[in-house]
Design goal:
Keywords: CBS domain. The chain is α+β, with helices and mostly antiparallel strands. It is built from 5 helices and 4 strands.
Length: about 140
């Protein structure tokens, strides 16, 4: 099974100039901890709930602070044709719960660990990914497109 068969196509995004409040509202609405940051449909970063708390709020910045002041610029992506098992391993290796799905440089979807688990086909892969994602302070040095 490929990523395109299980990814979400309705992806909520922010731009780097949007306020962090908008990103937080999307996270609340979608019930997730990260949102892709896009520029003309291209993923340029991710902003996480942790980015907002640690890089913005803890630094005394308010809700109108632009996303660019706290976003994570290392982005790990997959293509729609990526095998779901490989995507699960990519999540585990990079300790992320959501992967932007990119085709021809443009965001076309997002794959969440919950998408893998919902299919019941990749229970062991998503369980492995979740276990590895939850490892404390493991560093990721890979950027994959």
């Amino acid at each position: 099974m490929n990523v395109q068969e299980i990814m979400s196509k309705d992806v909520k995004t922010v731009t780097s100039s949007d306020p962090i409040k908008k990103a937080a509202e999307i996270m609340k609405q979608v019930d997730c901890g990260s949102v892709p940051v896009v520029d003309q449909g291209k993923v340029i970063a991710m902003v996480t709930d942790r980015d907002i708390v640690v890089r913005a709020v803890a630094g005394g910045k308010g809700p109108d602070t632009p996303v660019k002041e706290c976003m994570s610029q290392t982005v790990v992506t997959v293509s729609p044709e990526t095998d779901a098992r490989k995507a699960a391993n990519t999540m585990a290796d990079n300790q992320v719960r959501r992967l932007p799905v990119v085709q021809n440089g443009q965001l076309v979807g997002i794959l969440a660990i919950a998408d893998l688990a919902r299919k019941n086909i990749y229970v062991s892969e998503s369980g492995h990914a979740l276990s590895d994602i939850s490892e404390p302070n493991r560093q990721s040095n890979a950027v994959q497109h």
